[in-house]
Design a protein that fits this description.
The chain is an alpha+beta fold. Helices cover about 35% and strands about 25% of the residues. The protein contains nine helices and nine strands. The protein has helices spanning about 5-15, 20-30, 30-45, 45-65, 70-75, 80-95, 95-105, 155-160, 230-245; strands spanning about 130-135, 135-145, 170-185, 190-195, 210, 215-225, 255-260, 260-265, 270-275. Strands 1, 2, 3, 4, 5, 6, 7, 8 and 9 form a nine-stranded antiparallel β-sheet that branches. Helix 1 (about 5-15) crosses helix 2 and helix 5 packs across helix 6. The longest helix is centred in the first third of the chain and has 18 residues, at about 45-65.
Amino acid sequence: MSAVGRAIWFIESHFANDISLEEIAGAAGLSRFHLSRVFGLATGHSISAYIRARRLSGAAQSLADGSSNILAVALEAGYGSHEAFTRAFREQFGVTPETVRKQGHLSNITLTEPIRMDDTRTLKLDPPRFEDSPPLVLAGLADTYAYGRTEGIPSLWQRFNAHFGSISGQKGKVAYGVCSESNSDAGTFRYMAAAEVDDTAALPAGFSTIRLPKQRYAVFLHRGHISSIATTAQHIFGTWLPKSGLQHGETPDLIERYDDRFDPHSGMGVVEMWIPIRP
């Protein structure tokens, strides 16, 4: 993945918190000066403007969805006062936070969506190993995404990671990304950031669950930066599976398994990709 792609992934995974240009440049593998220059050339945004716009876009969505406490939304977006938030909001969208809250829609403002990250390099994978997995109960946060429009997944992980390690009934320290419910007609799939649990009675608000049967998997290793994982998946399903003589299992489409070989802060490391295989 390009340096700009790594920088975008890092921003999308961390923009709810204070992040420095040094951290973003470190994740991208560039100097602050070089990153600032190439980011603007590649995206049309300065780094600070992009982060501000993404935070304010999230704030606008919260207000349109009915949040009644503007100060709480302001603080969550990184502003220390109602006045500073209102000023930045008006500069970004041309209307005040109060206006968006009252109207309850976003049709008259333009949100800044995540910049699409893409990588079309040819990929070569090591042969898979095969594993028989027992039944799994996974719990986490999920959303529906369009094929090729998965820029929002890092921010889903950002929200999930605030719970990881303290989820009621959580088993172990492995995180899972589960792709399921593919709809070829609509061009969408469901993605869940999850952990294994042994009890679903006291999950955090907004969590959902998925129960996976005992089944056999082909396990591939994605190495490098997480932003290029879609390229690995495309190679598995587009090249390896058709040539393997094997048939894909019914559910899920794919499991990403994140253990201690993966660094969620930098996005670098090894991710196991589990593909269900029919017996």
